[in-house]
Design goal:
- With 90 residues, this protein is an alpha+beta fold.
- Helix content is 18%, strand content 27%.
- The chain has two helices and four strands.
- The protein has a four-stranded antiparallel sheet, covered by helices on one side.
- The longest helix is centred in the C-terminal third of the chain and has 12 residues, at 77-88.
- This is Cytoplasmic protein.
Length: 90
């Protein structure tokens, strides 16, 4: 089950619980990045920078492959993705 590790961040602040996810890619967060959520102790949502820009990595899926029906119908789904895009835009 996914858990927030940065509850005060604008992306994860609107919710305290994640719906189930059906899978994810294992990754290692780079130094100086911020892990906003973890799943099974692995980074799930990571914010960072690249040159002059901001980047966000979501290690699961936003579609029905690894996105469970509960995730796709989650009340925070649109807010989550809008907050991600708003945070990384220039």
């Amino acid at each position: 089950k996914a858990v927030n590790t940065a509850v005060e961040h604008v992306i994860t602040q609107p919710f305290s619980e994640w719906p189930p996810l059906l899978g994810y890619n294992k990754l290692i967060a780079k130094e100086n990045s911020q892990v906003l959520a973890e799943i099974n102790g692995d980074p799930l949502l990571v914010m960072g920078t690249y040159h002059k820009g901001k980047v966000c990595c979501f290690a699961s899926d936003c579609s029905p492959h690894w996105g469970s029906p509960q995730f796709l119908q989650w009340e925070h789904y649109a807010t989550f993705w809008c907050n991600v895009l708003h945070t990384i835009k220039k």
